[in-house]
Amino acid sequence: GQNIDQPTEMTATEGAIVQINCTYQTSGFNGLFWYQQHAGEAPTFLSYNVLDGLEEKGRFSSFLSRSKGYSYLLLKELQMKDSASYLCAVRDSTSGTYKYIFGTGTRLKVLA
Amino acid sequence: DSGVTQTPKHLITATGQRVTLRCSPRSGDLSVYWYQQSLDQGLQFLIQYYNGEERAKGNILERFSAQQFPDLHSELNLSSLELGDSALYFCASSPPTGVGRTGELFFGEGSRLTVL
Predict the structure, then answer these.
(1) Residue range A47-54: average pLDDT?
(2) Mutation target among A100, A104, A106 for the B interface, most CBs of B within 10 A
(3) Which of A69, B3, B71, B108 lies in the 20 to 30 Å Cα band around B31?
(4) Plot region of A95 (φ>0 → left; ψ -120 to 50 → alpha; else → beta)
(5) Beta-carbon separation of B42 and A104 below 8 A
(6) A-B interface: how many C-beta pairs under 8 angstroms?
(7) Distance, CA of B46 to chain centre
(8) Residue A74: strand pairing partners
(9) What b/e string do you get for B25-47 counting C-beta neighbours within 10 Å, with b at 16 or more?
(10) Neighbour count for residue A69 (Cβ, 10 Å)
């Protein structure tokens, strides 16, 4: 089966850097996604990793280690608007189709 | 605006009733996914359709059913509603994967169902 773990909550200060970790177990790994979700709103796509290494996109970076089943999302120069839930999702192709399995999300609070 | 349209945005109904949620995917996307998100919970995968055919099932209750029509819009039917069915229901679509494409999900704004 599939399993995704990420911390429930994190708190950081405006202007700081925060790293949100995600570990996963899946038999048909086909990519890892990070989404941002503000309360009551739709998730929006942040980043994608399918090969090992770091992908950088402005203030956001995401890292993947397939051998360790591990990813992290790094947010730099935190702003108040970054207060949201961050969802780690794995795309699994075990059943011959793509399934996107989401973790429960990490609620990030950015304090002034 | 993700390009995925969901209706209705809000729905209040009573236990035992039946509702239908509708989703129109982004133009060109053949895959539609349905997710349930209860209060402070993660996104629970319900079901996936590709070009009119059911492709994968997640933790979808027998009281729930879905279909995708020839014009690619999809409907999620929820029947014999219970209090615990109150949740945000998201529809998402994805473009085909391929070279240079990530195939990420694009989510609609969701349908908030309240069962009283």
Answers:
(1) 96
(2) A100
(3) A69
(4) alpha
(5) yes
(6) 60
(7) 8
(8) A19, A61
(9) bbeebbbbbbbbbeeeebbbbbb
(10) 18
